Amino acid sequence: MDRSGIICAGNWIVDIVHEIGQWPRESALVRIRRQSQDIGGGAANVIAALSKLATGLPLWPMGAVGNDDQGRYVLQRCREMGLSDALMRVKAATATAHTHVMSVPGQTRTFFYHGGANDALTDDDFPPEMFAQTPARIFYLGYPMLLAGLDKVTADGTTGVARVLSRARAAGVMTCVDLVSTEDPNFAESVGRALPYIDYLILNEIEAALATGRPLAAAGEIPSDVDLESMGRALIDAGVGHAVVLHTPEKVLWSDTSGNQTWAKTKPLAAEKVVSPLGAGDAFCAGLLFAIHEGLTLDRSLSLANATARASLKGITACDAIPSFKELENDVSQSEKTWLTS
Hints:
Blueprint: E1 6-10, E2 13-20, E3 32-40, H1 42-53, E4 59-66, H2 69-80, E5 88-91, E6 98-103, E7 109-114, H3 116-120, H4 128-133, E8 138-142, H5 148-151, H6 160-170, E9 174-178, H7 187-194, E10 200-204, H8 205-212, H9 225-237, E11 243-247, E12 251-256, E13 261-265, H10 280-294, H11 298-312, H12 325-328, H13 338-341
Parallel strand pairs: 1-4, 1-8, 2-6, 4-5, 8-9, 9-10, 10-11
Antiparallel strand pairs: 2-3, 6-7, 11-12, 12-13
Helix pairs in contact: 1-10, 8-9, 10-11
């Protein structure tokens, strides 16, 4: 099969974003300045970003929603992006996952999350024949550790995530996984079971520490370059098939199975231009997935990922400010233009 395109599977959430001026004291009241609603979660944000970038690649949304108004909203948003919902599952017995996001522009965001249909996903929803029949080149899964039915370590010592990724690999599909920061005490064990079935692992410094069992840095601090490089190598040694891409607000580390460890700095966006950091990591992932799919050089891949993430910071939802490639060029520094001009 001549494979092309990306399956974006995993979390599908209705994000209700509330912009507030400051976080209130306990029992106090704060006014909501602005409110918006859109789809969110790893799969939703990544596929929406790829759609906004107008890559031209075939895209398949995959995951679960409830048989409710929010579930119908998710499916309608997929259709509005010109995407088939044939791989989406409807879980009639549970609600669509949703999050109330409290966003203080230029500062923090806080999430109140109900897992709903995301937690009801199991490996039965990802049959081997689906991978054989869908001509995708990449299977993206986001986010393990926020998919309760797939994250459990079962009696045979594996997880639903590991079984799903193994099926994709067996069908000749490349696997890319993006993690999420949770306080699950089984984080390292559950993620560890899946690492041998992941070609590209994308995560931030908090998730890297959780996945390797390292102490978390103090609030507001970034681990040293030496510690980040050590975590990258540890994840490669634990079985990741090609590369670990570890991103922080200031820089990105690429560690691969050839022994390369490459750093790339990010171009900061002026604080007054940051509307919300919601979904910037997913935008980074979308840019990187396209680069991996197209076989771009490492420099071009990281430049594209960083530029997409930076663009997303200008919108209140995860993807509403992401432009097409042509428009994005205006926001890319001279050193980052090579992926657009050569």
